[in-house]
Design goal:
The chain is α+β, with helices and mostly antiparallel strands and 307 residues long. 49% of the residues lie in helices and 11% in strands. It has 7 helices and 6 strands, in the order ββαβββααβαααα. The strands form 2 sheets. A 4-stranded mixed β-sheet has the order 2-1-4-3, covered by helices on one side. A hairpin with a 5-residue loop joins strand 1 and strand 2. Helix 3 runs parallel beside helix 5, helix 4 runs antiparallel to helix 7 and helix 6 packs antiparallel against helix 7. It is elongated, with a radius of gyration of 24 Å.
Length: 307
């Protein structure tokens, strides 16, 4: 027997659409496609369908007959706003800092005054910092294209402005000071730079290793979720102690970069990043605990034994 599906506006309760003869095994994704036919302005990625006006969005893979509804199902629609693909967002977020930093590094005109146009710094650490910063963002761009598998295809368009302001703004602020003609190298000279470089490189390798391990957990095109465990790669052994070692390594990279450049804006960027990543890590940790009864009890969200 087929289902009748009525779709109401979650805010006004106005009836937007009535679908008769919907197959019992139809998924929410298929219902969204049917809804788009009558309301083309709301493409599927913009739609949030829920059983309760204030409830949680149903997943695209949810099947109609498995939902707690009768043969006449009422779904509530919310418009998520204009959407943009995650890949586009990440490419924009990461290409910006790469390009902006290089403008300061090459001292293009109008930044530091005419006599410094296209000159280069006499300090090795400045060139090293540029290599590290560029490497970090090139790595992120390549990971976005070839490594990451996104569980959601899109995000609200407004997020891109917020995220770009953060990444681009901090990149310009850091680059301005590090590439400044009056920049002074770190207090403990080469020793400090070498130690910091080691921290940076180890954390970048660690971060990449975790991304590869997470990628291997989720086969292409699927949305299965599993508990991540350490593999033969020693960088993944951090999984024994934290739920989101990719964030631990990411913060470590920026701490290394801050020590290397001894630059206050970098330290602030690390702090803001750490705060945000802790929020994400705690959320992920909570959802792991909720989803998996046998989740390893030793793990903390981001810092072993502490946080």
């Amino acid at each position: 027997s087929c289902f009748l599906v009525e779709i109401l506006d979650a805010k006004t309760r106005e009836k937007l659409c009535f679908l008769d003869k919907v197959e019992p095994h139809a998924t929410i994704a298929e219902i969204k496609n049917l809804f788009t036919k009558t309301h083309p302005q709301w493409y599927p990625a913009r739609q949030s369908l829920r059983l309760d006006p204030k409830g949680k969005s149903l997943k695209d893979e949810d099947v109609l007959q498995k939902l707690p509804v009768g043969t006449t199902a009422t779904l509530y629609f919310r418009d998520l706003g204009a959407q943009i693909s995650w890949v586009t967002v990440f490419l924009t977020e990461y290409a910006g800092p790469l390009f902006i930093y290089l403008l300061f590094y090459f001292r293009v005109p109008f930044i530091y005054g005419h006599k410094y146009d296209f000159t280069s710094s006499r300090h090795t650490v400045v060139h090293l910092a540029c290599i590290c910063h560029s490497f970090h963002y090139i790595k992120r761009l390549l990971e976005t294209l070839f490594v990451h598998r996104f569980s959601h295809g899109t995000m609200p368009l407004r997020n891109i402005f917020k995220n770009c302001t953060y990444y681009w703004g901090f990149a310009a602020w850091m680059a301005y000071y590090i590439n400044h003609p009056l920049y002074t190298p770190p207090t403990y000279g080469a020793q400090q730079v070498k130690l910091a470089l080691a921290i940076f490189v180890i954390c970048q390798l660690g971060n990449f290793s975790i991304h590869m391990a997470l990628r291997d957990l989720r086969p292409a095109g699927s949305k299965t979720r599993k508990i991540p465990y350490p593999t033969k790669n020693p960088f993944t052994w951090l999984f024994l102690l934290v739920s989101c070692p990719n964030y631990t390594y990411e913060v470590g990279s920026w701490i290394g970069f801050a020590i290397m450049t001894q630059c206050l804006p970098v330290a602030l960027f690390s702090l803001v990043g750490f705060t945000q990543m802790t929020i994400w890590a705690k959320g992920k940790h909570r959802s792991y605990l909720k989803e998996f009864r046998d989740y390893p009890p030793l793990r903390m969200p981001i810092i072993p034994f502490l946080l």
